[in-house]
Amino acid sequence: MSILSSNTDPLIANGNRYATSLYAYERRKTIPVQIGDLYLGSDFPIRIQSMTTIDTMDTQGSIEQSIRMIDAGCELVRITAPSVKEAQNLENIRKGLRERGYTTPLVADIHFTPNAAELAARIVEKVRINPGNYADKKRFETIDYTDASYASELDRIRDKFLPLVKICKEYGTAMRIGTNHGSLSDRILSRYGDTPHGMVESALEFLRICEDENYFNIVLSMKSSNTQVMVEAYRLLSKKLKDGGFKDYPMHLGVTEAGEGEDGRIKSAVGIGTLLEDGLGDTIRVSLTEDPEFEIPVAQDLVRRYDSRASSQDPIQAFAGQSEAFDSPLHPFAHTRRKTTEIFSIGGHQVPRVIADFSTRASISIADLKAIGHYYLPEPDKWAMNDLGADFIYTGKASLDFMLPNGLRQIQDASVCTPSDFVYPLFTYTEYQSASTKHPVLNFVSVDAAELCSGNDSFDPTCVIVLKSSNAHQMPAIRRGFFHLMQNEITNPVIIHLNYGSISDDQFQLFAPTDGGALFIDGLGDGLLLSLNHSKNKEAICNTTNFGTLQASRMRISKTEYISCPSCGRTLFDLQETTAMIRQKTDHLKGVKIGIMGCIVNGPGEMADADYGYVGIGKDKIALYKGQEVVKKSVPADSAVDELIQLIKEHGDWREPSVNE
Ligand code: SF4
Fold it and tell me: Which keywords label this protein (predicted)?
């Protein structure tokens, strides 16, 4: 009946529960963690944090930037400490901030250097270590470990890590064990592969050492630039902590290298928002390739959404699983798409469809279609489409007095619709049951998730379900509708319809990706219809958010993907300016992934599955990568963007921008 019944994955052998509830908003219960005067986890608010981008040796610059971040609402300031000298300088930065009346806790960010960590732990309130590189150097080797040789590796890690644990305990310093998908150790990769399971085990190896020492002032994170992997890893962490008898440690949420602008915001919302919806996460950092103070309002919008999300509101009927340990029919730790039948290019193996909502307009003109990627070019008198061309346009009761271009089709309210090869009716569930005129191939039937779960679930093979909910806990209510379909083996495709009324454009670009992304990450949905009331450019903003959500949840790639780091004190070139320059020259290369990294701290793995990489290796010296391989070493920064374009051309991924682009 479900994905679960055909799945023999040991990760879900004893259940798939990872959250307190999938049906009512409830935060996961955690122990409190103290960071200076700040507490997080337990019943404390979800904390907002960010990281400085200035060289840590620039004391005054670091102080000023920290103050800008704190004034914007940052509650924890992280600063990189690549070596002992930067770790030592944290003392001056901290002192300067205290003298200016700022008591916000500081976090030292450590990669590779236990001696810097041990020094910083005596100075600042928290240290972040990366278990992938604290005790291991990356050699990109696959080693076959026996149980005995693996255990002796763990002994080696214990010897290196134990001094830091003891110092943190003595000084009351908190710690984040922060796994990065892109920088797992060769040991973890050899045994678990490049997987959410490997990410979790990477942290648990270090956590066991802390618990053996009765040191519990710990926060955990599982970051990745791949939102599916990131979400699965945090969920698995939650389950493994429970199953393994560990304490319930708070979680720090983040999507690494999310990028900049609208794409970075949408991608962060898909990853972070998906977890927040299920009550996971006690502190968040939105990593944008922008000045860190601009990350704060985005993080605040994501978090404040839950201030009024009472658990008792609009109860959603829980799924009756195989046992208490199975609270849904999903595999929450591995992406699997819900199986559906294909109806006229919707569902089956087709990419999710984008439906543009024009239903509040009394009339629609040819020029209006520009907002959804379809252009009329008077010269040479033809239609064109960019990479964000919507698939369907929903016009409500309005009719069109022109032919739709580029394969775009119309959906119209059934009460006024004369079905044809280009126009398809949208019924309510009740209308559909008694309708005398239907389309012979494709009919859309709009149904509320609660109505569906109460038995309004009879659909013939021409029906595409348009699933919506008026519940304040909208995403879980719609998700519950999907569970009903899966349990009852109903395989009609589903268009997810999310309606946001009159929220601001900024909030819309975070909330819609949260709700839509959370469903697509679990493989639920064959299309997305977004509705927004008041915005002046609502069709355009809904269209870019729709495509952005599908791209960020890795369901439909429609544009170039940039995996750019947020920059920090290690950055070796002007990341914002370079990213903008690369974007300007390559943003027509649909489907190409370009990694832009300020340094090579974690090796090329950090760029995840980028096709091309632009990486700082020295002051204004760049290495260019094809996949995981360096192909041009030490290119001067002022010619590196042109060299990157040349590289893309050499590998056949270049095309000239078209007129529309
Ligand atoms: S990749 Fe970017 S954010 Fe990460 S350490 Fe290097 S410069 Fe800093």
Answer: 4Fe-4S, Iron, Iron-sulfur, Isoprene biosynthesis, Metal-binding, Oxidoreductase
